[in-house]
Design goal:
With 438 residues, this protein is of the alpha/beta class. It has 13 helices and 15 strands. α3 runs antiparallel to α10, α7 packs parallel to α8 and α11 packs parallel to α13. Bound molecules: 4'-deoxy-4'-aminopyridoxal-5'-phosphate.
Length: 438
C-alpha cells in the first residue's frame, strides 16, 4: 500500500528494548489482554498531543486516544504541570483527612453535571469506570430498594463482578455465575434492523418479563464504545425514559467514553438526546489518562448511602483532583468540545463519501469524535467482516495511523482520537482509511 503519511522520525523516541523482547516478556508474565490488535505488535514509547512514536521513532496519528481516554492529547503541558506541581507538594492522602482540592473539584464537576441535570450535586470518586458503575449500581439499589438492573445488549460497563454481569457482549462474558439480577433489552441499532420503536417495546417487555416489574435502574452509554459505536435514533432515549420511570428506575448514563466533550459541543453524551439522567458515571477522559472514575448524582439519591460506610483508598486524592481539574481547564480554554464537533462532522462527512464508494463499508455512525465504521463482506447480506477489520488496522498502522476496533463481531473500526486533532489530521485519517480499503 502506498504510504500517504508524512512519516516523521523522532530520534528522541528510541527505546532500548526490541518489540519482540517486550512482547515475549509480556506474554510470559502478564495475563492475556485484549491486545495486541495487530498481526505484528506495535510498541509505543512516546506521545505528544495527537501523535505517538514507536521505538524506532516512527510517528503515528493517534486515532484511538488510548481507548477514548487522552482527550486533551498526550502529555498536554498544562495537565502535566498541574500533576507535577501537586505531586511535589503532597501526593497521597486518604479521604480521612481534609484536603482543599477534593471539595473544590467536586463542586466544579457538579456544576458541569448540572448541564445534564440541574439537581446534580454530590460526587463519589473512584479509580476507574468499572468501579464507578459498580458503585452506581450499589447507590441505585440502596435508593430504590430494588435489586434489578436493566442494561442494553452490546453494552460494556466494566470488569468487576457486578459490571461484567451488566455487559451485553458474549466476547466479554466468562463462564462464571455472576449472581446479579441483570436483564438485557435490545439496543436501538438501526443498521442491524432494530429501530427505536422496537427497542422501546423490547425494553417494556424485558421489564415485564425478566424483572419483578420494578427496577433499580437502567444503564445506557449514550453511544456505546466497545460494542461498536451503536448510535441510537433521537427518539429512543426520551421514549425509553418514560418506560424506566414507570418501573421506578433511575436513569444511569455511563459517560466513561461519551463524557468530557467527546460527542461534540456538549460535555455529556446524554445531552445530545435530551434526557435528564439521575446518575452519571465517568472515567477515562476525566483524567486524560491519569486514573480516575466518578459517580455524580442528586443529594436525594446520594442520601441512600448515608449510615453505611463506603471507602476508596485513592478516590479523590490530591493528584487525581489536580489532573481532572486541569482537564476541565484545558477543555474550556481550548474549546475542545467545539473542536470535536467541527472536526468530527468534517471527518464523518469524508467517511460517508468513502462508504458510498466502498462495497465493504456498511455503516458510518457516531457524533463528534466518536465515529464507528462498520465493515461488512457484502452490503446486501451485511455479513460482518472481522478479518477485513484486522487487515485495516495493520495497513493503517503501516501508513502511520492507529485506530481501534470493536463490536460484537470485531468488525467496527473505532475512530476516537484526542479532541485536539485538526482538519489536516482528519484528511490524513480519511485518506489512509480509503487507501487501505482500496
Ligand atoms: N464503561 C464504559 C462505557 C467503558 O467503555 C469502559 C472501559 N472501556 C468502562 C465502563 C470501564 O472502565 P475502566 O476500564 O476504567 O474500568
Amino acid at each position: 500500500m502506498k504510504k500517504i503519511n508524512v512519516l516523521e522520525i523522532d530520534p528522541a523516541a528510541n527505546a532500548s528494548e526490541s518489540t519482540e523482547a517486550v512482547a515475549a516478556l509480556r506474554a510470559k508474565h502478564v495475563m492475556p489482554l485484549p491486545g495486541p490488535m495487530y498481526t505484528k505488535p506495535v510498541q509505543i514509547v512516546k506521545g505528544r498531543m495527537q501523535y505517538l512514536f514507536d521505538e524506532k521513532g516512527k510517528k503515528y496519528l493517534d486515532g484511538f486516544a488510548g481507548v477514548a481516554t487522552v482527550n486533551l492529547g498526550h502529555c498536554h503541558p498544562q495537565w502535566m504541570k498541574a500533576i507535577q506541581e501537586q505531586m511535589s507538594e503532597y501526593y497521597h492522602t486518604p479521604a480521612l483527612y481534609l484536603h482543599p482540592s477534593l471539595g473544590k473539584f467536586a463542586k466544579r464537576l457538579a456544576d458541569v453535571a448540572k448541564q445534564a441535570n440541574p439537581a446534580m450535586d454530590v460526587c463519589f470518586f473512584t479509580n476507574s469506570g468499572s468501579e464507578a458503575n459498580d458503585l452506581a449500581a450499589l447507590i441505585a439499589k440502596n435508593f430504590t430498594g430494588s435489586p434489578d438492573i436493566v442494561c442494553l445488549r452490546h453494552a460494556y460497563h466494566g470488569r468487576t463482578l457486578m459490571t461484567m454481569a451488566m455487559t451485553g457482549l458474549s466476547t466479554w462474558r466468562h463462564s462464571t455465575p455472576y449472581g446479579q439480577s441483570v436483564a438485557f433489552a435490545e439496543a436501538n441499532y438501526p443498521y442491524r434492523g432494530v429501530n427505536w420503536k422496537q427497542a422501546v417495546e423490547d425494553l417494556r417487555n424485558t421489564i415485564r418479563t425478566a424483572t419483578p416489574g420494578k427496577i433499580a435502574g437502567f444503564w445506557a452509554e449514550p453511544i456505546n464504545g466497545v460494542g461498536g459505536l451503536i448510535t441510537p435514533e433521537p427518539e429512543y432515549f426520551p421514549a425509553a425514559y418514560e418506560v424506566v420511570k414507570k418501573a421506578g428506575g433511575l436513569w444511569v448514563s455511563d459517560e466513561v467514553q461519551t463524557g468530557v466533550g467527546r460527542t461534540g459541543k456538549r460535555f455529556w453524551g446524554i445531552q445530545q438526546f435530551g434526557v435528564k439522567p439521575d446518575i452519571i458515571t465517568m472515567a477515562k477522559g476525566l483524567g486524560n489518562g491519569y486514573p480516575i472514575g466518578a459517580v455524580i448524582t442528586t443529594p436525594e439519591i446520594a442520601k441512600s448511602m448515608h449510615g453505611k460506610l463506603h471507602y476508596n483508598t485513592y478516590g479523590g486524592g490530591p493528584v487525581q483532583m489536580a489532573a481532572a481539574n486541569a482537564v476541565l481547564d484545558v477543555l474550556e480554554k481550548e474549546k475542545l468540545a467545539d473542536n470535536a464537533a467541527e472536526v468530527g462532522s468534517y471527518l464523518k462527512a469524508k467517511l460517508e463519501k468513502i462508504q458510498a464508494k466502498s462495497p465493504n463499508v456498511g455503516d458510518v455512525r457516531g457524533m463528534g469524535l466518536m465515529i464507528g465504521v462498520e465493515l461488512v463482506k457484502d452490503k446486501k447480506t451485511k455479513d460482518p467482516a472481522p478479518e477485513l477489520a484486522v487487515k485495516m488496522l495493520d495497513l493503517t498502522k503501516d501508513a502511520g495511523l492507529l485506530i481501534g476496533k470493536g463490536g460484537l463481531f470485531g468488525n467496527v473500526l473505532r475512530i476516537q482520537p484526542p479532541l485536539c486533532i485538526t482538519k489536516k489530521d482528519a484528511d490524513f485519517l480519511a485518506e489512509t482509511i480509503e487507501e487501505a480499503l482500496g
